[in-house]
Write a structure and sequence with these properties.
By secondary structure, the chain is an alpha/beta fold. About 35% of the residues lie in helices and about 25% in strands. The chain has 2 domains: about 150 residues, Rossmann fold (3-Layer(aba) Sandwich), CATH 3.40.50.300; about 80 residues, no CATH class. The longest helix has 18 residues. The relative contact order is 0.17. The structure holds adenosine-5'-triphosphate. Belongs to the ABC transporter superfamily.
């Protein structure tokens, strides 16, 4: 299978209070086309920075990123990004927000009307795919957080990107809405065949969504472990309580704690309570 994303030897530093802060240290990662890869790791390990570099929103100090075999030189229509804060235009309706990211090709002015018609149809079908047909004339302020994030996903899909980069997209949602959104994004991805790179703090979310979970360690940010998720492609709620799933969740959480030196020795807590 071809790799949709190839990250090769990426370095990145930022200026910090005590001089240059090495945030990504020789990070390499290959993401196969059509896969759903989730990135987890302790706060500050460079997950968002890595995602922003792949998006072309941040440049690397060293190394290269290839998308579809070509080195990136900035943002491109082949990659769409979904952030935690929805980033919708408040003055546009649901339908207008989705249509906004249409891919108008400048050399097709002859077919403009035809193209606009096709784009409106695609926007309507994406709005229907995310379950918001009845709300297409509403404005973002009239919608719940979950509904806004559905529009953000529909909008990201509008330009038919081969890759969607998601940075904690469900981080601001309540637990129930979050689970609904997870299933929605899986369905959408299956239908559209998009490759996903998804950053999250939530290990359960990472395992439920990802075909692979990439764990990064901090100071400096490095790839620590890549876990293959041994679940059937079609996920369902029952898998969240599957013993194998729960065991892997525990393993990943413990490894994240290890990477920041936070492993809990509970017997030590017991001895403190006993006054030892
Ligand atoms: N533009 C910037 N300027 C200076 N430092 C930055 C900048 N962006 C990120 N950093 C620093 O780089 C490090 C990694 O940040 P990043 O947001 O990539 O981590 P993260 O793993 O996504 O964190 P979190 O899980 O808390 O969102 C942090 O120490 C952060 O303070």
């Amino acid at each position: 299978m071809t790799n949709a994303i190839e990250i090769k030897g990426v370095f990145k530093s930022f200026d910090g209070k005590r001089g240059r802060n090495l945030v990504l240290d020789d990070v390499s990662l290959s993401i196969a086309a059509g896969t759903f890869v989730t990135i987890v790791g302790a706060s500050g390990c460079g997950k968002s920075t890595l995602l922003r570099i792949v998006a072309g929103l941040e440049s690397a100090d060293g190394g290269i990123v290839l998308v579809g075999g070509k080195e990136i030189a900035g943002p491109g229509v082949d990659r769409a990004m979904v952030f935690q804060d929805y980033s919708l235009f408040p003055w546009l309706t649901v339908a207008q927000n989705v249509l906004f990211s249409r891919r108008l090709s400048a050399n097709k002015y002859d077919n403009l009307a035809l193209e606009r018609d096709a784009e409106e149809k695609r926007a309507a079908s994406l709005i229907s795919l995310v379950g918001l047909s009845a709300s297409q004339d509403l404005y973002p302020s009239q919608l719940s957080g979950g509904m806004r994030q559905r529009i953000a996903i529909a909008r990201a899909l509008m330009s038919k990107p081969s890759i969607i980069l998601m940075d904690e997209p469900f981080g601001a949602l309540d637990a129930q809405t979050r689970e609904v959104m997870q299933d929605l994004v899986l369905d959408v991805v299956e239908q559209e065949g998009t490759t996903i790179m998804f950053v999250t703090h939530d290990v359960e979310e990472a395992l439920y969504l990802g075909t692979q979970v990439v764990l990064m360690s901090p100071h400096p940010g490095r790839i620590d472990t890549i876990y293959d998720v041994p679940l059937p492609k079609k996920r369902d709620e029952q898998m969240r309580i599957d013993p194998q799933f729960l065991q892997l969740k525990r393993t990943v959480m413990e490894r994240i704690r290890d990477t920041v030196g936070l492993s809990l020795d509970r017997s030590a807590v017991g001895s403190i309570e006993a006054g030892a």
